[in-house]
Design a protein that fits this description.
heterodimer; A: alpha/beta; FAD/NAD(P)-binding domain; five-stranded parallel beta sheet; about 15% strand; B: alpha+beta; 2 domains; 8 helices; 7 strands; elongated
Chain lengths: ~625, ~260
C-alpha cells in the first residue's frame, strides 16, 4: 500500500503556495465536462459542493437527511479558530500551527496543520461576506474569545450557535448553486458503496430513503465528507443519524483507515439518566471558566450537595493540576472524572457524574452576571434534568464527542484510492491524537472552501478517464451486492432489535476502548464484538420493507458497519502501546498517573488495509516528521 | 407513569392514514418525548409491527429535523422547546396524548409523522443568500457592522427550519420562515445589494409552493422553538412592497465588444 503523503518540499510557510502553483488547472471551459460526487452536506461537504459548483464542475451532492441544512456540524456550539490576531495578543499563523500540533500530542502531520492555520484567516472573511452574524464589539468589529485553554483570543463565535450559522452560510451558498443548476442535490439518499474501476473511484451506490430504490451514480471523482463515527459507542454527543457507513464501505473498497482508535471524550456532558437514553448532550466547555468541579471525599456518600461541608469535598482538578485547575485540557479532565468515579466517589444516579458548581462564582459575581454568561446553557440543563443549576450544582460526565481517526488522506486530501477524496471529520487529518476546542469547524471549512477546489482540479487535469456508465461490470456488481445485503437484513427476522445490538456494542466500546484502555480489555472486547456481529447476522429483527421509507432498515445497515469498525478500533488501540491524547493505555503512564507517549516506536500514523471479511487487516505506517515543533511531554501541573 | 398514545399512521404519500392507539407503559419522567417513542417502537418491532416513523437527528434542538403536533400544538407547546428537548416530566400518569404530523398542503405527509419540507429549501434557493463565491471576500473587519444590527440579524438567523410555524398557522403560511431569512440578511450590509430582488423572488417562491397568506394571527411566533419574533414578517412585507413598487422589467444589455 502506497502511503506517500505528497508533502511539498521547502520551508513550511511556502509549501501550500508552492503546491498551488504546481497543481495543474482545469481549463474553465472544460470544468463542466467533469462530474463530481460529494457525499455529505455539512461544513466540509456543503462548502466543497458549493465551491466546486461555483468553479463550474457538475456536482451531485448527497445527504441522508431531508435537507442539507441538517448536517451535524449544525450542533457545534463554541466557535471557530482563526489566526487573525485582531486582538493584538500575540497570535499568528505559526502560533495556531504550533498549538494545534502540540494539542494533538504530536501525532498530526505538520504540513497539513500549517496549511490549516494559514487558510483559517480566509475562512472568517468568506463567512462574514456570506452574512454569518458573528458576535461583534460596539465599535462594529468582530469579537473574539479565548477557548479551551488557549492563551490567545482567536475564537470567533455567533452566540452559542456558531456551527449552525457557519453551516447555514455554506448551505445558502450550496442552495445558490442548486438554483443555478450547477449542483444537483439528492437529499434523503444514503451512500451504501463505492465503485472502483481500474483502481479509481468512479461512483457510488446509493439508496433513495423514500422509495427504497438503490441506484448507481457515476462520476470522475468522489468526495466523502460524511463526518465522524462516534456513534460506534452508541451514546455520544453525535446526532442519531451520524454513522460510519460511507467511509467504512470505502475502506472495504481499498481506502486505508487512519488511527481508528483516536476518540475524543468531552468532559462536560449531561450524565446518562437511564437505559432508554438515546444520546448525550454536551454542555459547552466555557462553563469550566467559572464552575468548580468536585466530588465528595468519602466513597458512596449519598448526601445531597448542600449537606456536604467544604472540608469533605475534593476539588480534584484544582488539587491535581494546580496551574490549570478546572481548565485542564479535555483528555486530562475526562480521565480525572473517570478516576474519581471508579473510586466510588461519583454523584447522581449510578455514581457516574461529578459536580460542576457555580455557587462560588454566583457569590463572587452575582447571579445576574452568571446568567448573562451562561443563561442559555443553564436553561438547556434545566430542560433536560429538571434541576436548577443556580441552586443545585450541575452534574456532568465525559462523553464521546469527536473522532480524530478516519480515512487516511495525503496532503491533497486524497485517500489511497485515486479519485476518492475525504474531507472534514471523515478523514484522519489534522488533529493528531487530540483535537483542540474550536478547531473542527475550522478544518471542515478549510478542506471544503480552500483545499479541495485546488487538489481536485489537479487530479482531474492529471488523469485520463475511460468512459464508463452504470452498465460497467463493477457498477453492476456493486449494485447487486448492496441489494442483496438489504434483502438479507430484512430476511433474518430474529429475536433482537437493531438498537439492542447497538447498545451492547456501545457498552463494550465504552468499557474497554473508551477513556482508559489496556491490552487485556481490548482483546476481550475485540473477541466479544466478533461474536456479537455473528449473532447480529443470525438474530436481528429488522421491521418493514425494502421499497419504502424504512428507518429501521437504515439503522440496521449502519449498525452492521459499526460492528465491524468497533473491532478494528480495538485492534488499533491494542497495537498502539503508548498513551497519547485521547488514547490512554493504562500500562503506559508515568508514576503520577499521566499519559506516557512513546515517540521512538509510535511517532507514526497507523493506516489499516482491509483484507476481506473476517480477515485480519494489515497495519501500515506513515512516519511523522517534526521539523518545526519538537515533541515534548505535555504538562498541565 | 402509563400513557395512552394516539398516533397518525400513514404508509406513504398516496395512501390515506388514520389514528392508531398504543399503550406506553412505564414511562420515566426523565425520558425525552422521542425516547418515549423509541421505547414504544422497540416494542412494536418485537411484536412484528412497523415502528412509528418520525424525523429526528441531533436531539438537542438545533438541527430542525424533529417536530410534530402533540395534542394539537406544534412541538407540544413548551416555550423554546423542540420535541426532542421536551421531557416526560411534563406529562402525568394516565394522560392521553395525540400525536400528528405537520399539516399543510406544502408539506405532504411521506410516512406517519414524516413530512416533506423541501419547499423550504426551494425558498432559500430562490434568493436566501449573498452571492459571494469562495475566495472573493474582503477582510472580515473591512466592514464594521453596528452591534445592534448584528444582534438583530442573529435573532432572525436562529431559525432551524423545522416547520412548526407553518403547522401552527391556520393559513399554513411560511411567512415567519421566509421573513426570518429576509430579515437576517436585510440587517447586514452584505445583504443590501440583492435585498430587493431577494424579497421578490423569495416571496414569489413561497406563494408558488402553495403556502397560505399571513393574516397576523401570531401562532407561529408563539410556537417557534427558537423564539423568532413576528416582526420579521413585517420586515419581509415592507421589503416586498418597496421592491414591487420599484420593479421594472429587465433591460437587455449588450455585451462589451
Amino acid at each position: 500500500m502506497n502511503l506517500n503523503a505528497r508533502i511539498p518540499s521547502g520551508p513550511i510557510e511556502q509549501r501550500w503556495d508552492k503546491a498551488r502553483f504546481d497543481l495543474k488547472l482545469v481549463n474553465p471551459a472544460n470544468k463542466r465536462k467533469y462530474n463530481v460526487i460529494v457525499v455529505g452536506s455539512g461544513l466540509a461537504g456543503g462548502s466543497a459542493a458549493a465551491t466546486l459548483g461555483e468553479l463550474g464542475y457538475n456536482v451531485k451532492c448527497f445527504c441522508f437527511q431531508d435537507s442539507p441544512r441538517r448536517a451535524h456540524s449544525i450542533a457545534a456550539q463554541g466557535g471557530i479558530n482563526a489566526a487573525k490576531n485582531y486582538q493584538n495578543d500575540g497570535d499568528s499563523v505559526y502560533r495556531l500551527f504550533y498549538d494545534t500540533v502540540k494539542g494533538g500530542d504530536f501525532r498530526a502531520r505538520e504540513s497539513n496543520v500549517y496549511r490549516l492555520a494559514q487558510v483559517s484567516v480566509s475562512i472568517i472573511d468568506q463567512c462574514v461576506a456570506q452574512g454569518v452574524p458573528f458576535a461583534r464589539e460596539y465599535g462594529g468589529l468582530l469579537a473574539n474569545r479565548s477557548f479551551g485553554g488557549a492563551q490567545v483570543s482567536r475564537t470567533f463565535y455567533a452566540r452559542g450557535q456558531t456551527g449552525q450559522q457557519l453551516l447555514l452560510g455554506a448551505y445558502q451558498a450550496l442552495e445558490r448553486q442548486i438554483d443555478a443548476g450547477k449542483v444537483k442535490m439528492l437529499p434523503r439518499t444514503e451512500m451504501l458503496d463505492l465503485i472502483v474501476i481500474d483502481g479509481k473511484a468512479r461512483g457510488i451506490v446509493a439508496r433513495n430513503l423514500v422509495t427504497g430504490r438503490i441506484d448507481v451514480h457515476m462520476a470522475d471523482a468522489v468526495v466523502l465528507a460524511t463526518g465522524g463515527y462516534g456513534n460506534v459507542f452508541y451514546l455520544s454527543t453525535n446526532a442519531k443519524g451520524s454513522n460510519t457507513t460511507a467511509i467504512w464501505r470505502a475502506y472495504k473498497r481499498g481506502a486505508a483507515f487512519g488511527n481508528p482508535c483516536y476518540t475524543q471524550i468531552h468532559p462536560t456532558c449531561i450524565p446518562q439518566s437511564g437505559d432508554y437514553q438515546s444520546k448525550l448532550t454536551l454542555m459547552s466547555e466555557s462553563l469550566r471558566n467559572d464552575g468548580r468541579i468536585w466530588v465528595p471525599l468519602k466513597q458512596g456518600d449519598t448526601r445531597t450537595a448542600d449537606q456536604i461541608p467544604e472540608s469533605e469535598r475534593d476539588y480534584y482538578l484544582e488539587r491535581m493540576y494546580p496551574s490549570f485547575g478546572n481548565l485542564s485540557p479535555r483528555d486530562i479532565a475526562s480521565r480525572a472524572a473517570k478516576r474519581v468515579c471508579d473510586e466510588g466517589r461519583g454523584v447522581g444516579p449510578g455514581g457516574l457524574g461529578v459536580y460542576l458548581d457555580f455557587s462560588d462564582a454566583i457569590r463572587r459575581l452575582g447571579q445576574k452576571t452568571i446568567a448573562e454568561r451562561y443563561g442559555n446553557l443553564f436553561e438547556i440543563y434545566e430542560r433536560i434534568t429538571g434541576e436548577d443549576p443556580y441552586t443545585v450544582p450541575m452534574r456532568i460526565y465525559p462523553a464521546v464527542h469527536y473522532t480524530m481517526g478516519g480515512l487516511w488522506v495525503d496532503y491533497h486530501l486524497m485517500s489511497t484510492v485515486p479519485g476518492l477524496f475525504v474531507l472534514g471529520e471523515a478523514n484522519f487529518s489534522d488533529h493528531g491524537a487530540n483535537r483542540l476546542g474550536a478547531s473542527a469547524l475550522m478544518q471542515g471549512l478549510s478542506d471544503g472552501y480552500f483545499v479541495i477546489p485546488y487538489t481536485l482540479g489537479n487530479y482531474l487535469a492529471s488523469e485520463k478517464f475511460a468512459k464508463v456508465d452504470e452498465t460497467h461490470p463493477e457498477a453492476v456488481a456493486a449494485l447487486a451486492q448492496t441489494q442483496s445485503m438489504t434483502k438479507q437484513l430484512l430476511a433474518i427476522k430474529g429475536k433482537r432489535t437493531v438498537s439492542s445490538f447497538h447498545r451492547e456494542l456501545g457498552k463494550l466500546m465504552w468499557d474497554f476502548c473508551g477513556m482508559a484502555r489496556n491490552a487485556k480489555g481490548l482483546e476481550h472486547a475485540a473477541d466479544k464484538i466478533a461474536g456479537l456481529r455473528e449473532e447480529f447476522w443470525k438474530n436481528v429483527n429488522v421491521a418493514g420493507e425494502a421499497g419504502d421509507l424504512n428507518q429501521n432498515l437504515e439503522s440496521a445497515g449502519r449498525v452492521a458497519d459499526f460492528l465491524e469498525l468497533g473491532e478494528l478500533m480495538c485492534h488499533d488501540a491494542r497495537v498502539r502501546e503508548e498513551s497519547c491524547g485521547g488514547h490512554f493505555r493504562e500500562e503506559y503512564q508515568t508514576s503520577d498517573g499521566e499519559a506516557q507517549r512513546n515517540d521512538e516506536s509510535f511517532s507514526h500514523v497507523a493506516a489499516w488495509e482491509y483484507q476481506g471479511p473476517n480477515q485480519k487487516p494489515v497495519r501500515h505506517q506513515e512516519e511523522l516528521q517534526f521539523e518545526y515543533v519538537k515533541p515534548v511531554q505535555r504538562s498541565y501541573k | 407513569m402509563n400513557l395512552t398514545l394516539h398516533v397518525w399512521r400513514q404508509k406513504d404519500v398516496a395512501t390515506p392514514g388514520q389514528m392508531v392507539r398504543y399503550d406506553a407503559p412505564n414511562v420515566s419522567e426523565h425520558m425525552s418525548f422521542l425516547e418515549m417513542l423509541d421505547v414504544v417502537n422497540e416494542g412494536l418491532i418485537l411484536k412484528g409491527e412497523e415502528p412509528i416513523a418520525f424525523e429526528h437527528d441531533c436531539r438537542e434542538g438545533i438541527c430542525g429535523s424533529c417536530g410534530f403536533m402533540i395534542n394539537g400544538i406544534a412541538h407540544g407547546g413548551f416555550k423554546n422547546t423542540t420535541v426532542c428537548q421536551l421531557h416526560m416530566r411534563h406529562f402525568a400518569d394516565g394522560d392521553e396524548v395525540y400525536i400528528e404530523p405537520w399539516r399543510a398542503t406544502a408539506f405532504p405527509v411521506m410516512k406517519d409523522l414524516v413530512v416533506d419540507r423541501s419547499a423550504f429549501d426551494r425558498i432559500i434557493a430562490s434568493g436566501g443568500y449573498v452571492s459571494v463565491s469562495t475566495g472573493s471576500a474582503p477582510d472580515g473587519n473591512a466592514l464594521p457592522i453596528r452591534k445592534q444590527d448584528s444582534d438583530l440579524a442573529m435573532d432572525a438567523a436562529a431559525c432551524i427550519g423545522c416547520g412548526a410555524c407553518v403547522a401552527s398557522c391556520p393559513n399554513a403560511a411560511a411567512a415567519l420562515f421566509t421573513g426570518a431569512k429576509i430579515s437576517h440578511l436585510a440587517h447586514l450590509p452584505q445583504g443590501q445589494p440583492e435585498r430587493k430582488e431577494r424579497s421578490l423572488r423569495m416571496v414569489r417562491q413561497m406563494n408558488a409552493e402553495l403556502f397560505g397568506n399571513c393574516t397576523n394571527i401570531g401562532e407561529c411566533e408563539a410556537t417557534c422553538p427558537k423564539g423568532i419574533p413576528i416582526e420579521v414578517i413585517a420586515g419581509m412585507n415592507g421589503d416586498f412592497l418597496a421592491a414591487s413598487w420599484q420593479e421594472r422589467p429587465p433591460v437587455e444589455i449588450a455585451g462589451a465588444g
